[in-house]
Design brief:
The complex is a heterodimer of chains A (816) and B (192). Chain A is mainly α. Chain A has helices at residues 2-27, 68-93, 95-100, 103-120, 131-148, 152-157, 159-186, 197-207, 213-222, 226-255, 261-293, 303-320, 325-343, 346-377, 384-409, 419-427, 433-440, 449-478, 490-510, 515-534, 543-562, 571-580, 592-613, 625-642, 645-648, 665-668, 673-690, 700-706, 726-733, 738-748. Chain A is globular, with a radius of gyration of 32 Å. Chain B folds into two domains: 1-67, no CATH class; 72-172, EF-hand (Recoverin, domain 1). Chain B is built from eight helices and two strands, in the order ααββαααααα. In chain B, helix 5 (105-116) packs across helix 6 and helix 6 crosses helix 7. Chain B is globular and about 60 Å long. Classes of the chains: A mainly alpha (816), B mainly alpha (192). Chains A and B meet through helix 19, helix 21 and helix 28 of A and helix 2, helix 5, helix 6 and helix 8 of B.
Chain lengths: 816, 192
Amino acid sequence: MDSSITRRTGVLLLIFTFSSFLHGSRGEIPTQPTGGSVTILPPVNLDNAPQAYPDPVKENMPVFTMNYQRIQLPFEITLWVLLASFAKIGFNVYHKITIWVPESCLLISIGLIVGGIMYSVHEEPPAVLSRNVFFLYMLPPIVLDSGYFMPTRPFFENIGTVLWFAVVGTLWNSIGIGVSLFAICQIEVFGVQDINLQENLLFATIISAVDPVAVLSVFEDVSVNEQLYIVVFGECLFNDAVTVVLYNMFNFVALMPEVEPVDVFLGVGRFFVVGLGGMGFGIVFGFVAAFTTRFTFKVREIEPLFIFMYSYLAYLVAELFNISSIMAIVTCALTMKYYVEENVSQRSCTTIRHVVKMLGSISETLIFFFLGVVTITTDHEWNWGYILFTLLFAFLWRGLGVLVLTQIINPFRTIPFNFKDQFGLAYGGLRGAVSFALAFTLPENIVRKQLFVTATIAIILFTVFLQGISIRPLIELVNVRRTNRNLDTINVEIHCRLMEHTVAGIEDLCGQWSHFYWKDKFLKFNNRILRKILIRDNRAESSIVALYKRLELQNAMEILDNVSGDISATPSIVSLYEEKKSSAKPKKKFLATDVKNMHDILSKNMYKIRQRTVSYTNKHALPNDSHSREILMRRHTSIRRSLRPGSFQSSVVPKYFSLPAGKSLDTKYPPRRQIYTDDLETMSEVVYHSRPSRFGKPARSSSRAMMPLRRLDTLTEAPSVNLLDESTGEERGSSRRGTSRTNSSSSDSHIPAPHRPFHSSVENDSSSAYNIRSGHHEVEEEQQQQPPPPAWVATPRDNAAQNPLLRRPQWNPKKM
Amino acid sequence: MGASQTRTEKYQDLADKTGFSLEQIENLHKRFQRLSDNEETIRNQHPKEVGSCEEIGFEQFLMVMSHFRPPSLKTTEEEKEAMRKEKLRFLFNMHDTGNDGTITLVEYRKVVEELLSKSGDIEQETVKAMADAAMLEVASTNVPHMAPDEFYEGITFEHFEQILKGLEMETKMYIRFLDVETPTLSCGNSTS
């Protein structure tokens, strides 16, 4: 382990030095002669006399030329991005580092190193932090990332608190720090008397922009309670917006010779215009985007593009009008997400999420990296007094602010913040990217700009390193209230929903409305009007059903999980599964004859089961129950064994989903090969998605629980859709097509059914209890559903059925 | 004079029992009278189908409402536990229409069905499947090693508590009862 680390660091260092030299080539090394164009013209003949043969003075065709100028800019950008990404790879080599030291610290350190190297070769860092580059290119991805992945439900439940802390908190901080610094400036000792109030306020605004990225990841790891998390998260997001607005305002004010009261009023008015205007723009663009995606089912490849273009457009248009572009892009993402994710295909959805995360991550990485670089390479103006007092006041006012604001807002909250929460909130106030950028983009005519820059960098470094590293042990020490993540069971979902309805009803009875009522109203409006306009395939799907489908899916994934790992036909699954499971399962190899036997047993047993279950209705076991149970067990094991490598490699895996009795399989659903891969990719997506979700891995216990259940009830002979059920269906259809079919059917049996309802024959069911068979996993394949097509067809919409359960399962957990 | 005195006594009595403040009780009483057209009791609109009582009086009304009170900053841990248990009990009784102490599959199914009835066409089988799955979850969490031929009778209160252990009831099930009188709102169709 250590040797690999040293090797890697060695490589990294080499790369750094190499690239720094390359960057050096920009200024110092004269540009290479552009030997690209070759002219083979006859040389000018001075005599004008015909020549027998051309002069020897001709240029040969250059075999190898270099033209650095041409590619310089993109090349350097790419190198820097790569460099920062290598750094990220490097950290994660040794897992323990990232637990104790937040990633931003590490990035800054690497940046410091690189900056040191560059400084020693007297090289300038790239001019990345010009105003335009930062605000137009680097900030939007970060904000889009935060906005897109904000957990909407907790956010809206806590929105009052979030806005309170973001807006009022930032104002409090800025004004407090600004005024106290101004007071300090008056003291002659420190020698900063020339900074007037406006400039102080400006500076205070810059450093009150909180950026708790590091803290958020710690919170997530520690599973801190949801309210605290969402308040910190939301505050971070919105106070960026507030800070930028204030910054612009104070910037303007700082340049003015004097300030009149009317300006203050105008300032407040401007504040509202900016904030609400930003939101308005965001909502408009969000709806337009949602509406657009309604029509994109023919052009699935470019679907993700719309998301990005619309959000970026929202950002730019808001910048055009100088209103809060951050608010615009955040509200755009929030509005858009819900509708778009229902309209686009699953692949596009994954792509969108992935790309958003990627862009956000790159931007953030680059910014912290440059922070480190710039720290070394700029000229600093250090002033002990000013900087130390800035640090002091930053802490002080943040702590005070949190205390006071919490006291005011606690009565309005259902779950008041206790002191531990407040501590978490106050201590989590790290400064970061936005402060840095704002400091850098201070206008030049502020005399003490360098001092401000230095002070900002000092604060950022201090908070990120000190607070970032120490917050984890402190949080655990203080024992902040944790949240229980293990809430992904159907029961919980049902009861949550139930309680909401109940409370809304009782509120109506009492005549006292609170946010449940408004939520209810909004949902009704949403369902009735908005969804009809914005979503192409408007079938309302309850989140309970969505959760159920998701759990079913995981359930089926677990079957897959238990199979031996050599699924060579499906690389995506394999890689993800290797990640998940560290233990290698022993691979079972079977002879072809064994396999065939197994398939035969399988099909026979399934057939038998189907017959038998017709009459199995009531509570008590049938007299010869053991027989059926035995068959079930055999079937179970044989299916398990049949999910072995070879079966996946069957070339064409027809995706037949409903087998009305007697019909042939190809009539309804022609086999589609690409669906197979789509399927598996989507399965892998499920696995992938459940990992980064905020609230952790859903409880596997529940899904495991679902497997044993076997309601051996009547299975209607109606056409059914069941991915797992091909062979049974095939039996019913009684069109045995030999082993090839059984091959594919059993291989298909690994494809989980998104729905695996425990079909119960209510018609003739008089009992209320049901039989639980632990360990009979495969029995779910007996399930039937109404015909229509499966959830995973690449273009399902055309023949999509009316059954909401069979639509594409919503893997994006709605609670996200 | 005498009437109002007995009324305040009664209110005080109720306040002690339910934990509401006097102003809140007064408001709720006004509301109650509105709902019941100034009679003593609210009558069940659909006596055959829904609910087990014919009519409820004000005290019962208050008892139900008291389940929805939020915890304040001052409640201790035990009180919070007790409140939580009460709320869970309330929910449990809501489901357990048969009053036999367990939630059977049929009862649970009914709950799921009603919940999902408004959100599009949910097929019967889906509903049943979900109810089954939910029951199974409870079963497997509480009785992990059931032999294949055992039957799970129904969810008892302990199992119910267990399965909903992680849920923060305080956030979900509360109504902020106001002290001031809200403008009387017309009730429309009773929704609860």
